[in-house]
Amino acid sequence: METKVLNTNNLPFCKGCGHHGISQNTAKAIENMGLNILDVIFVTDIGCHGIIDKSLNAHTVHGLHGRSVALGAGVSMGLPENKKVIVFIGDGGATIGLQHILEAARLNVNLTVIIHNNFLYGMTGGQLSGLTPKGFNTVITPNGSPFGEHDICELVYTAGANYVSRVIGIGDFSETIQKALETPGFSLIEVMEICPSYGVKFNPKRKLQEIVEAANKPIKTWTNNRAPFSFPERKTVNNLFDKTPVIEKLNVEKNLTKQIQVVLSGSAGEGVQLAATILCKAAVKHGYNITQKGTYPVTVGVGFSVAEINISPNEIYFHGLSNPEYMIITSQDGYEYSKKTIQTLNKDALLFIDQSLPTPDTNAHIITMDFRGKGAKNAVLSALFSFAKKTNIISTETLKSILSEMNMLEKFPLAEIEKELA
Amino acid sequence: MNTIQKEVILDDSRVIMEALAQAGADTYIGYPITPSNAMYLYASIRYKYMLPAPDEISTLQYMSGMAATGHLPVTATSFPGFALMVESINMAYMMELPMIIILTQRLGPATGTATAGAQGDIALLRGMISGGHPIPVVCPATIEDCWDLSAKALQMAVDLRCPVIILSSKERANTNRNFDISKLPPIKPIERKYYQSNEPFIPYKYNDTLVPDFLPVSNNQHQVRLTASTHDQKGIIQHTSDEAMKNTIRLEKKVNQYIDTHNDYNHINNHADTLVVSYGITANAAEEAVLTLNNQGKKIDLLIVKTLLPIASKINDIIHSYKKVVFAEDNINGQYAKIIFGDRLPNHVSFVGAIGKMLSPKEIIEGGKF
Lengths: 422, 370
What we know:
The structure holds two protein chains of two kinds. Chain A contains 13 helices and 13 strands. By secondary structure, chain A is an alpha/beta fold.
């Protein structure tokens, strides 16, 4: 017989299986609440319970083993509050997806999870799960499971769920399901069952009630009163390009006729990447094309920090490092990292190196100066002024104007540097 | 179109995220894995719905749920995260849910080097759907590509009801370059068409496009069934019934059929006998290599493949029409070459690769033996 929720009373479960009761009680709760059946979305996991889909008149989404709570959470996040998302999952799925359940509880997603806990994986032959009580016999532990089990209700309650209840899966527990559905935020019901195929077979003399008591799993309800999930409020922009400043080009002649590479090599936290950005802006102002990339160890804030820059009057295709024309080395970290590249520099290359560092073995022309003397954070920038002065690829005036635009002039020892370069 | 020049410095990550947002992607869910973390950051200020997920399995599951309700979700990841997503991408593929996954390649195996580039995930992408079904992969090689291909990828995801992968690499996603953004025309948001008839909705019934009409689970007119298991047109689980097998075969056909009419590539054709094939970051080096060779008087053609997988008939036709073919890829095994020509490359096909660094034009010129 077809009802509002179920399209048949011939459910696809073994005789005596508690899954019948869960389906019927859920259907009763939905009917009692007077919900429109197409305002209900069932998300089912892998396991015997998951084949209920075809018997339901609601929307159904049938996903992967253990992931249905995360999938259901996604469905719920995409829907208005009047929709009801119900996840059916077994104790095996709950074990696999334990983190998804805790996360959904933590986020307090509008979702009702009903765990069909029959203490084992039914579909695969009766193996134990993380919710199998200690001492319960399964196909691979015929003398009783030696492991302890999760108290899923306590875990979920602690994680912040608004309504948690454990029930024995016999008789009418539709009111508990209704309460869960009516509670805003995350709710979970653990329904205790015994699998008529494998549970009874391996534990022939035990009764469900006794197993639950022996496992010290109280039949009770836990509640919190937290605000349900909503997407975090943030400051957003209408267009990501609004955040990228437009660079006005100067009406100057380009001194560069071919693509060059500049490497800035220093230490993390000493403004290497910022200096690279300033150099690139200057180059673009002068009408060149640029590429800029940073290289650093996986850790943040320590070790080397290297910027590789290409500057070209023409289109840049390959932007990888081959044999740089210019290198700026301002710290020991940078020196160590770039040692090999320094050794292979051509004799036409220019190497700007801080006076505190060893004189490197290279064919390049070396310019040694006291960059770090201007403060470690100003070392690379100071070297850029020397670079500008020596190469004329960009002008020191352009560097100055960019520092001014970026409100960096105040803290920068410009007068001292200009004096040295004069 | 704005003709006033607007020169800015930006990276591919920014362009991809903006293009997808303009095309109608409204949701970003993800985990900030290197080197996709810039995209995560951009999404946090651009996307209407943005949620940090605890891991990549949750990411794909949240995205699938959002997609089932009619949203267009995006995530960005790299191999370690992508590997976790594979089963869930299979799920979304089987359920037929549109979404975008940006895979920013980095050096493997395993966690490898998070901050080094690579093109090492192509073989995985070719075989990641159980059954060998194709999943669409687009691979931008320029900023213009990031703009056009990202919008097309989202359209493809919607048209095909299928996850689509945008393949990048650390060396493009995290490299800044100057660009005149006035060259990027505004992108028209995708118009989604939902099933509208009063006739009963059969969720996996299809027509000539082989793509079933979509209805979100939020509608209250028709029942919607979505499933990751083998199913008939009604979305009811089957073992291997004829109808279910037809449906499973359809999933393969719908992608191949679409890609044969919707594909992008750049063929620099001087009617030479030799072709260099490349994609993504390596295409930049390959283009420089081919220009250099042509300037030296050596006639060499170039094919930059942008719709990388499945391989469109036209792309296969071009590659198979040359007497000599050289593949340039940032990996050590010629993954794309082997997808096209098989594990033992024929004598007329060769491969130049690199690991832990970008393949340079010089290496392509020397390794290609032109």
